[in-house]
Amino acid sequence: QQQVKQSPQSLIVQKGGISIINCAYENTAFDYFPWYQQFPGKGPALLIAIRPDVSEKKEGRFTISFNKSAKQFSLHIMDSQPGDSATYFCAASKNFGNEKLTFGTGTRLTIIP
Amino acid sequence: SAVISQKPSRDICQRGTSLTIQCQVDSQVTMMFWYRQQPGQSLTLIATANQGSEATYESGFVIDKFPISRPNLTFSTLTVSNMSPEDSSIYLCTGRVNTEAFFGQGTRLTVV
After folding, report:
1. Which of A43, A97, A105 sits opposite B101 (nearest CB)?
2. How far is A70 from chain B (nearest CA, A)?
3. What whole-number distance in Å separates Cα of residue A58 and Cα of residue A64?
4. B68-72 and B89-97 strand pairing
5. From CA A83, how far away is CA A97, in angstroms rounded?
6. How many CA atoms lie within 13 A of B90 on its CB side?
7. CA–CA separation, A61 vs B9, rounded Å?
8. pLDDT tens digits, one per residue of B58-110
Protein backbone atom coordinates (compact mmCIF):
# COMPACT_ATOMS: atom_id res chain seq x y z
CA GLN A 1 0.00 0.00 0.00
CA GLN A 2 1.31 3.39 -0.93
CA GLN A 3 1.51 5.42 2.26
CA VAL A 4 3.49 8.30 3.58
CA LYS A 5 3.44 8.76 7.34
CA GLN A 6 4.21 12.21 8.72
CA SER A 7 4.98 13.37 12.25
CA PRO A 8 4.41 15.31 14.36
CA GLN A 9 0.89 16.46 13.69
CA SER A 10 1.66 19.84 15.25
CA LEU A 11 4.86 21.52 16.36
CA ILE A 12 5.65 24.64 18.34
CA VAL A 13 9.15 26.05 18.07
CA GLN A 14 10.69 29.16 19.51
CA LYS A 15 11.93 31.82 17.12
CA GLY A 16 15.49 31.08 16.08
CA GLY A 17 15.18 27.39 16.84
CA ILE A 18 15.26 24.38 14.52
CA SER A 19 12.00 22.87 13.32
CA ILE A 20 12.13 19.20 12.34
CA ILE A 21 9.36 17.31 10.57
CA ASN A 22 9.68 13.63 9.72
CA CYS A 23 8.19 11.40 7.07
CA ALA A 24 8.41 7.68 6.36
CA TYR A 25 7.34 5.82 3.26
CA GLU A 26 6.73 2.20 2.31
CA ASN A 27 6.93 1.99 -1.45
CA THR A 28 10.55 1.59 -2.55
CA ALA A 29 9.54 2.64 -6.07
CA PHE A 30 9.14 6.25 -4.90
CA ASP A 31 11.91 8.39 -6.33
CA TYR A 32 10.77 11.97 -5.81
CA PHE A 33 10.18 13.50 -2.37
CA PRO A 34 8.92 17.09 -2.22
CA TRP A 35 7.93 19.23 0.73
CA TYR A 36 5.12 21.75 0.45
CA GLN A 37 4.30 24.77 2.59
CA GLN A 38 0.70 25.86 2.84
CA PHE A 39 -0.70 29.02 4.37
CA PRO A 40 -4.40 29.28 5.24
CA GLY A 41 -6.52 29.86 2.17
CA LYS A 42 -3.66 29.19 -0.25
CA GLY A 43 -2.57 26.24 -2.36
CA PRO A 44 0.52 24.25 -1.36
CA ALA A 45 3.75 25.90 -2.47
CA LEU A 46 6.72 23.74 -3.36
CA LEU A 47 9.45 24.35 -0.80
CA ILE A 48 12.18 21.89 -1.63
CA ALA A 49 12.43 18.41 -3.15
CA ILE A 50 14.95 15.59 -3.15
CA ARG A 51 15.67 12.47 -5.15
CA PRO A 52 17.12 9.30 -3.59
CA ASP A 53 20.53 9.66 -5.22
CA VAL A 54 21.54 12.23 -2.59
CA SER A 55 21.28 12.13 1.20
CA GLU A 56 20.82 15.83 1.80
CA LYS A 57 19.68 18.93 -0.02
CA LYS A 58 19.85 22.44 1.31
CA GLU A 59 18.16 25.61 0.10
CA GLY A 60 18.62 28.58 2.33
CA ARG A 61 17.27 27.77 5.79
CA PHE A 62 15.52 24.61 4.55
CA THR A 63 17.24 21.22 4.43
CA ILE A 64 15.92 17.79 3.46
CA SER A 65 17.70 14.80 4.93
CA PHE A 66 17.07 11.50 3.19
CA ASN A 67 17.75 7.99 4.50
CA LYS A 68 17.08 5.50 1.73
CA SER A 69 17.74 2.37 3.78
CA ALA A 70 15.35 3.48 6.51
CA LYS A 71 12.84 4.85 3.97
CA GLN A 72 12.66 8.11 5.85
CA PHE A 73 13.13 11.75 5.01
CA SER A 74 12.88 14.88 7.06
CA LEU A 75 12.62 18.64 6.73
CA HIS A 76 14.78 20.86 8.89
CA ILE A 77 14.04 24.57 9.14
CA MET A 78 16.97 26.42 10.64
CA ASP A 79 16.61 29.75 12.46
CA SER A 80 12.82 29.36 12.41
CA GLN A 81 10.87 32.59 12.01
CA PRO A 82 7.25 33.56 12.74
CA GLY A 83 6.71 33.79 8.97
CA ASP A 84 7.44 30.05 8.76
CA SER A 85 4.24 29.33 10.69
CA ALA A 86 2.22 27.24 8.25
CA THR A 87 1.19 23.67 7.51
CA TYR A 88 3.87 21.51 5.93
CA PHE A 89 3.19 18.44 3.83
CA CYS A 90 5.67 15.84 2.71
CA ALA A 91 4.87 13.82 -0.39
CA ALA A 92 6.29 11.07 -2.54
CA SER A 93 5.93 10.06 -6.15
CA LYS A 94 7.26 7.63 -8.69
CA ASN A 95 8.81 8.40 -12.05
CA PHE A 96 10.52 11.56 -10.78
CA GLY A 97 7.28 13.35 -10.03
CA ASN A 98 5.56 12.42 -13.28
CA GLU A 99 3.09 10.26 -11.42
CA LYS A 100 0.63 11.14 -8.70
CA LEU A 101 1.85 12.49 -5.40
CA THR A 102 1.03 10.62 -2.22
CA PHE A 103 0.84 13.07 0.67
CA GLY A 104 1.57 12.87 4.34
CA THR A 105 -1.06 14.03 6.79
CA GLY A 106 0.52 17.43 7.39
CA THR A 107 2.26 19.22 10.26
CA ARG A 108 0.99 22.49 11.63
CA LEU A 109 4.07 24.50 12.60
CA THR A 110 3.83 27.48 14.92
CA ILE A 111 6.85 29.67 15.60
CA ILE A 112 6.54 31.67 18.80
CA PRO A 113 8.55 34.81 19.62
CA SER B 1 9.08 27.89 -11.12
CA ALA B 2 5.85 27.41 -13.03
CA VAL B 3 2.65 29.37 -12.91
CA ILE B 4 -0.49 27.32 -12.55
CA SER B 5 -3.63 29.43 -12.54
CA GLN B 6 -7.01 28.26 -11.36
CA LYS B 7 -10.40 29.84 -11.89
CA PRO B 8 -12.50 30.58 -9.97
CA SER B 9 -10.52 31.10 -6.78
CA ARG B 10 -13.67 30.61 -4.74
CA ASP B 11 -17.39 30.12 -5.22
CA ILE B 12 -20.55 29.54 -3.27
CA CYS B 13 -22.98 27.25 -5.07
CA GLN B 14 -26.44 25.91 -4.55
CA ARG B 15 -26.83 22.19 -3.98
CA GLY B 16 -27.78 20.28 -7.09
CA THR B 17 -25.86 22.59 -9.44
CA SER B 18 -22.49 22.04 -11.13
CA LEU B 19 -19.27 24.04 -11.13
CA THR B 20 -16.44 23.83 -13.63
CA ILE B 21 -12.95 24.70 -12.41
CA GLN B 22 -10.29 25.68 -14.91
CA CYS B 23 -6.56 25.06 -14.61
CA GLN B 24 -4.05 26.77 -16.91
CA VAL B 25 -0.31 26.08 -16.88
CA ASP B 26 2.19 28.48 -18.40
CA SER B 27 4.13 25.63 -20.00
CA GLN B 28 3.35 22.21 -21.40
CA VAL B 29 2.94 19.37 -18.93
CA THR B 30 2.41 15.73 -19.77
CA MET B 31 0.20 14.85 -16.83
CA MET B 32 -2.02 16.99 -14.68
CA PHE B 33 -3.66 15.92 -11.45
CA TRP B 34 -6.71 17.08 -9.54
CA TYR B 35 -6.77 16.94 -5.74
CA ARG B 36 -9.32 17.71 -3.08
CA GLN B 37 -8.44 19.11 0.31
CA GLN B 38 -11.08 19.27 3.00
CA PRO B 39 -10.61 21.80 5.82
CA GLY B 40 -7.67 20.94 8.02
CA GLN B 41 -6.95 17.76 6.08
CA SER B 42 -4.34 16.45 3.70
CA LEU B 43 -4.70 16.27 -0.06
CA THR B 44 -6.61 13.44 -1.71
CA LEU B 45 -6.15 12.65 -5.38
CA ILE B 46 -9.34 12.73 -7.40
CA ALA B 47 -8.00 11.84 -10.84
CA THR B 48 -5.17 12.07 -13.32
CA ALA B 49 -5.95 14.14 -16.40
CA ASN B 50 -4.26 12.65 -19.45
CA GLN B 51 -4.02 14.61 -22.66
CA GLY B 52 -5.72 12.76 -25.49
CA SER B 53 -7.31 10.07 -23.35
CA GLU B 54 -9.85 9.68 -20.58
CA ALA B 55 -8.97 10.67 -17.07
CA THR B 56 -7.97 8.01 -14.57
CA TYR B 57 -10.00 8.16 -11.36
CA GLU B 58 -8.98 7.10 -7.88
CA SER B 59 -11.09 4.83 -5.74
CA GLY B 60 -14.13 6.67 -4.46
CA PHE B 61 -14.28 9.16 -7.32
CA VAL B 62 -16.30 8.63 -10.50
CA ILE B 63 -16.48 10.32 -13.86
CA ASP B 64 -20.18 11.13 -13.59
CA LYS B 65 -19.54 13.17 -10.46
CA PHE B 66 -16.18 14.69 -11.46
CA PRO B 67 -15.89 14.85 -15.24
CA ILE B 68 -12.51 16.07 -16.43
CA SER B 69 -11.36 17.51 -19.72
CA ARG B 70 -7.78 17.82 -20.98
CA PRO B 71 -7.92 19.36 -24.45
CA ASN B 72 -4.20 20.23 -24.65
CA LEU B 73 -0.94 20.12 -22.72
CA THR B 74 -1.49 23.39 -20.86
CA PHE B 75 -5.15 23.25 -19.82
CA SER B 76 -7.60 21.10 -17.90
CA THR B 77 -11.03 21.44 -16.31
CA LEU B 78 -12.70 19.64 -13.44
CA THR B 79 -16.46 19.76 -13.04
CA VAL B 80 -18.10 19.04 -9.71
CA SER B 81 -21.57 17.82 -10.66
CA ASN B 82 -24.85 17.71 -8.76
CA MET B 83 -23.19 19.28 -5.75
CA SER B 84 -24.05 18.59 -2.15
CA PRO B 85 -22.67 20.22 1.02
CA GLU B 86 -20.24 17.28 1.35
CA ASP B 87 -18.48 18.59 -1.78
CA SER B 88 -17.46 21.76 0.06
CA SER B 89 -13.71 21.66 -0.15
CA ILE B 90 -10.64 23.14 -1.79
CA TYR B 91 -9.95 21.73 -5.24
CA LEU B 92 -6.39 21.92 -6.53
CA CYS B 93 -4.70 21.10 -9.80
CA THR B 94 -1.05 20.27 -10.19
CA GLY B 95 1.40 19.47 -12.94
CA ARG B 96 5.07 18.66 -13.26
CA VAL B 97 7.01 21.46 -14.91
CA ASN B 98 10.67 20.91 -15.70
CA THR B 99 11.72 18.79 -12.73
CA GLU B 100 9.25 19.77 -10.02
CA ALA B 101 5.53 19.39 -9.23
CA PHE B 102 3.70 22.70 -8.73
CA PHE B 103 0.19 23.48 -7.52
CA GLY B 104 -2.38 26.03 -8.49
CA GLN B 105 -3.68 28.31 -5.74
CA GLY B 106 -6.83 26.25 -5.37
CA THR B 107 -10.57 26.78 -5.71
CA ARG B 108 -12.45 27.06 -2.45
CA LEU B 109 -15.94 25.67 -3.01
CA THR B 110 -18.79 26.09 -0.56
CA VAL B 111 -22.06 24.31 -1.30
CA VAL B 112 -25.16 25.62 0.46
Report:
1. A97
2. 24
3. 6
4. unpaired
5. 28
6. 21
7. 31
8. 999 999 999 999 999 999 999 999 999 999 999 999 988 777 888 889 999 99
Residue B93's pLDDT is 95
Q: Give A68→chain B minimum CA distance, Å.
A: 20
Q: Please judge whether A103 and B100 are an interchain contact, meaning their C-beta atoms are less than 8 angstroms apart.
A: no
Q: Assign B87 to helix, strand or coil.
A: helix
Work out the number of other CB atoms within 10 angstroms of the CB of residue A14.
Answer: 11
Going through chain A in order, the beta strands assigned E by DSSP cover 4-7, 10-14, 19-25, 33-38, 45-50, 56-59, 62-67, 72-77, 86-92, 102-103, 107-112
Query: CA Rg, chain A, in Å?
Result: 13
DSSP assigned state of A54: -
B11, B77 Cβ separation under 8 angstroms: no
Structural contact between residues A87 and A38, judged by C-beta atoms closer than 8 angstroms: yes
Contact indicator for A39, A108 with CB cutoff of 8 Å: no
DSSP-assigned letter for residue A69: T
